[in-house]
Design a protein that fits this description.
Helix content: 10-25%
Structural class: alpha+beta
Oligomer: single chain
Shape: globular
Number of strands: 38
Length: 684
């Protein structure tokens, strides 16, 4: 009643009045109070539950609408604040089976849905208390209050994991607003204590001297895997979606949000977000040792702290009961799609380099693999197969002479005849690099006139593959590559927007299906986003360095990708950016035997990573590694089939089979190819 009058009620306490006499209130306040009471009574009398396809819509008292639906036989979906159609994201598998039937259930003040063999999800419309239970009714994950508005009253409530400040200006004071040895809580609290501090950045990296920066201003935010941003920007950066909070056991460990250079050597995570860049692919996904998995796309992020998991900027959260990694993988693929079977040759040895610069070089290099008895299935070419010059300096209006969908006369003056010869005489296929952009003036002008380009990228020349008409045009222009004999694509530099690689691969898949609906698709890509696995799109870890440290974290890259839902990852064996050495390259070959895809690559100025170009002892060891790889191909092909049909990873972390042994929780130097034997190559 005092709030209706516009006055602040006294804080609760032994001397606070328990009754306010009506005569102290105005007539207007009385009418307002009565309206509030009548509204509450009407809400209580009305049912908060409305049936919708595959679930129910629940009207909460203070947090809007919450939809509880079953999305597959293994996954639930919680959608927040939506009265209209639920958003369908690119990662969803449109061909997945219809979800099973459900029953509406009640337990005390909670309402929800129950699915036989899966369990139930329930929410209290008044408090938004939440629970996901197994079929026996035992709680898997709960929340004392599931929903709260994005961005709370405190600057500490605005944390956005995976983002850094754009154009930061630090506050004045000691050390210029830089603090060391901080926790996230102490960092944001420090900002809260300075009147001129409007934003803060925290680095959850223990070995950094300064790991907290207090800011007077910032113009925006940008993705950064090892930063947490909180506060305001000028102009304000839109924060979309809701904040969802799940309770967490103190012993819970989280896996599967992806990896980059800073964290590929470990498996466990405390945060995750949507981000792709060279040498890093992340997704707001995790498996919790508490017994469930969660997927929150798109633009969502999560952070585990203070006995809870806080999801930010999320409207749709997929929850999967999952006692172990296998159950998590099956659940993820039940909504994002099972991985496609790759062509068998993709499991063999793939030889790539930057520098296939002439027909003569190609014709003299390829036979040396056969002459030296080095098993191989395909070679992969950089720019030079379709153009004599790269497009890095191509202006925004392009070059009139540039060929985006042709061949270079220096390397492929007779493309059909050459590719046919390499295939028939040497049993070698060719894969070619593709870029996500155009450089030919005429093609660029046409694409701009159709609105098919996206902001960003290299001089604004990147194509928007999410547009169906653009994909159809693109497919028509590149279809001849397939009929000419190009076996697959290596897609590079497509990180302008998060799902760029997804839509790009869809265009290539549509090309192949228009020509041969039964041929298996295979591509190599510099990023992975959930859902790409169902197309046969393989992730490669980017332009890595030829160092022992890089070799040591390479298995971790792939293990993290697998837990995130991507069973196929490869790398530049030997390192890309500069010259390697014989011992490092040999060790990398030996490790590559047990990786899902075995591929070498090198920069233009380095000695190619082809065995016959190295000293005899190293070349012999590389041949032995390749022979072992080819002995394992039948097993690898069977593991690929098991991944596609049973939902089991090809490259399994030891913790997936031995979680009771805490020594396995972050072990990346050993792994299980399928389930056995143990892969433990020398990495030093």
């Amino acid at each position: 009643l005092q709030r209706a009058e516009g006055r602040t009620p006294p804080a609760p306490g032994p001397f606070a009045p328990s009754v306010v006499h009506p005569r102290t209130l105005s007539a207007a306040a009385m009418r307002s109070a009565v309206a509030i009471l009548l509204s509450a009574a009407a809400l209580a009398a009305a049912s908060p539950v409305t049936p919708i396809p595959n679930g129910i819509s629940v009207q909460t008292v203070s947090s809007g609408v919450v939809r509880l639906t079953v999305e597959s036989n293994l996954a639930f979906r919680v959608s927040v604040g939506k009265n209209g159609p639920v958003t369908e994201y690119p990662f969803l598998d449109d061909s997945r089976p219809a979800p099973p039937s459900f029953q509406t259930v009640n337990s005390g003040s909670m309402v929800g849905i129950s699915v036989s063999g899966l369990g139930s999800v329930m929410i209290d419309p008044n408090s938004t208390q939440f629970a996901m239970q197994d079929p026996s009714g035992t709680a898997i994950v709960t929340s004392r209050q599931l929903l709260q508005p994005s961005g709370g009253s405190s600057i500490c409530d605005t944390a956005r994991p995976g983002f850094d400040a754009q154009d930061p200006v630090r506050i004045s004071g000691d050390n210029g607003g830089a603090l060391s040895g901080q926790t996230q809580e102490s960092c944001c609290s420090a900002c809260d204590s300075f009147s001129e501090c409007t934003a803060w950045v925290y680095a959850p990296v223990p070995d950094q001297q300064d790991n907290c920066w207090l800011l007077k201003s910032a113009s925006g935010v940008f993705p950064s895997s090892d930063r947490v941003f909180g506060g305001q920007t000028e102009p304000p950066t839109p924060i979309v979606g809701s904040t969802i909070t799940l309770d967490a056991d103190s012993s819970a460990v989280y896996y599967g949000s992806g990896a980059g250079q800073s964290n590929a050597g470990t498996l466990s995570r405390t945060s995750g977000f949507e981000h792709v860049e060279n040498r890093e692919s992340d997704a707001p996904v995790y498996w919790s040792s508490q017994g469930y998995s969660a997927i929150g796309l798109q633009a969502a992020s999560w952070q585990a702290r203070d006995g809870s998991v806080v999801w930010s900027q999320v409207d749709d959260l997929y929850l999967i009961p999952a006692a172990d990694i296998d159950a998590s993988t099956r659940g993820m693929w039940s909504i994002t799609g099972a991985p496609s079977m790759l062509p068998r040759w993709a499991l063999g040895f793939l030889a790539s380099r930057w520098g296939w610069n002439s027909e003569e070089y190609i014709n003299t290099t390829l036979p040396q693999f056969r002459q030296g008895n080095y098993p191989i299935d395909a070679y992969i070419s950089d720019f030079s197969w379709f153009t004599a010059q790269d497009d890095y300096n191509c202006p925004s209006d392009g070059w009139s002479w540039y060929s985006d969908f042709g061949y270079s006369n220096l390397t492929y003056p007779h493309p059909k005849e050459q590719l046919s010869y390499y295939r028939s005489a040497l049993n070698m296929r060719m894969m070619g690099i593709r870029k996500p952009r155009l450089c030919n003036t005429e093609l660029l002008s046409y694409a701009r006139s159709q609105g098919w380009l996206v902001e960003g990228g290299l001089n604004g020349r990147d194509l928007n593959y999410s547009i169906p008409a653009m994909r159809q045009w693109y497919s028509k222009n590149q279809a001849h590559f397939r009929t000419d004999g190009v076996a697959g694509y290596w897609n590079d530099e497509g990180e302008v927007y998060y799902f760029q690689f997804y839509w790009w691969n869809l265009a290539e898949v549509e090309t192949l299906q228009s020509l041969n609906a039964t041929e298996r698709f295979f591509s190599i890509n510099r990023a992975y986003t959930p859902g790409m696995q169902r197309m046969g799109a393989v992730y490669w870890t980017g332009d890595i360095n030829p160092t022992w440290q890089q070799l040591q974290i390479t298995p971790g890259y792939m293990l993290n990708q697998g837990i995130m839902g991507n069973p196929y990852t490869t790398c530049d064996i030997g390192g890309f950016t500069s010259q390697t050495n014989a011992l490092l390259l040999t060790r990398w070959y030996q490790a590559g035997v047990f990786l899902p895809i075995m591929r070498v690559h090198s920069t233009e100025s380095a000695t190619p990573h082809f065995p016959f170009l190295w000293e005899p002892a190293a070349a012999n060891a590389m041949r032995d590694a390749l022979n072992l790889r080819y002995q394992l191909i039948p097993a690898l092909n069977s593991l690929a089939y098991r991944a596609a049909t049973e939902g089991k990873l090809i490259m399994r972390p030891l913790m997936a089979s031995f979680f009771a042994d805490t020594n396995t929780h972050d072990l990346t130097s050993q792994w299980l190819p399928g389930g056995s034997p143990l892969g433990a190559p020398p990495l030093h």
